[in-house]
Amino acid sequence: MKVLFAASEAAPFVKTGGLGEVIGSLPVALRRQGVDARIILPKYKAIPTNLKERIRHIKHIYVKLGWRNQYCGIEESECKEVPVYFIDNEYYFGRDGIYGYSDDEVERFAFFCRSVLEALPHVGFMPDVIHCHDWQTGAIPVLLEAHYRHNDFYKNIRTLFTIHNLRYQGIYDRKILGDLLDLGDEYFTPDKLEFYGNVNMLKGGLVYANLINTVSPTYAQEIQMPFFGERLDGLLRARKHQLFGILNGVDYDEYNPATDPLIFRNYDQDHLEYKVENKLKLQEQLGLDVRGDVPMISIIVRLVAQKGLDLIAHVLDEILAMDIQLVVLGNGEWQYENMFKNVASRYPKKVSANIFYDNTLAHRIYAASDLFLMPSLYEPCGLAQLFSMRYGTIPIVRETGGLKDTVQPYNEFTGEGNGFSFTNYNAHDMLYTIKRAVNFYHNKEVWHALMRRAMQCDYSWNRSAKEYIKLYRRLKSEQ
Question: Which of 114, 316, 402, 424 is least crowded, fewest Cβ atoms below 10 Å from its Cβ?
Answer without folding.
Answer: 424
